[in-house]
Amino acid sequence: MNSLVIPAKAGIHGFPIKTFGNDGWLDSCFRRNDALRVGLVIFVFFQGSVLFAAVPAKILIERAEKFKTLGLIPLAREQYMYVKKEYPKEKSVAQALEELSGAELKIHESNALNAENAGALKLAALEYERALKADPSNQRLKGRYKGVMKEINLKQGLNERVSKEYLRGLEFYQAGKLDQALESFVTTLNMAPQHKGALNYVEKIGEKLGKGKTP
To the nearest 10°, the Cα dihedral for 78, 81, 87, 90? Predict the structure, then answer.
């Protein structure tokens, strides 16, 4: 058996060590610093070895199935992949991984639809991407994903136009050109009816123009 070497705490002169094997303890020579007392805790493993029993494939597969039942798809996949690596002759793993891909696809597609209906388009796009990883050739998913991305791009373009028109209104307002400012803010509201800034300035301009009129 190879001897186990346990170094002492660093910081002393030299490296006092103790070695042990099946023949008993062997003290090595070392220089000693009388000013320091170093305590060594040595864990002795009887017979000089520790044995690790392999976990049967059946138990690992049962664990993967539990993960799948709980909806922990990534953990289930990781478990199956481990079984596939350690037990290549286990025939049930390939089918289990295929079924897992189907379950993963359904979860991500459902999440994507829910996010899309709630107006969370970026989250929907992310879930469609995950679903397509499970089934890259799914044309229906590809169509949904393209539709969501198109809507995201349209909204992004709309937001840019809204911001541009709102800033125009601010410039007119600060220059005292209230009629032109009002026109820009109304245009902003036509594109984004809930725009709080534009609503606020329309009210302000209305008050100012109303006060400027003679009764």
Answer: 110
Closest C-alpha among 106, 105, 112 to residue 146: 112
Domains delineated in the chain: 4-48 (no CATH), 57-137 (1.25.40), 159-212 (1.25.40)
Residues with Cβ < 8 Å from 48, sequence gap 6 or more? 1, 4, 20, 21, 22
- Nearest to 195, CA basis, from 162, 172, 170: 162
- Identify whether the C-beta of residue 109 lies closer than 8 Å to the C-beta of residue 126: no
How do residues 176-192 score in pLDDT, each as one tens digit?
999 999 999 999 999 88
- The pLDDT tens digits for 4-29 are 444 444 444 444 444 444 444 444 44
Q: Indicate yes or no: pTM above 0.90.
A: no
Q: Please, how many CA atoms are within 13 Å of residue 126, restricted to the half-sphere of its CB? A: 7
- Dihedral, CA of residue 83, residue 87, residue 88 and residue 91, to nearest 10: -80
Nearest Cα residue to 182 out of 192, 193, 170: 170
Q: Where do the H-state alpha helices sit in 70-91?
A: 73-86
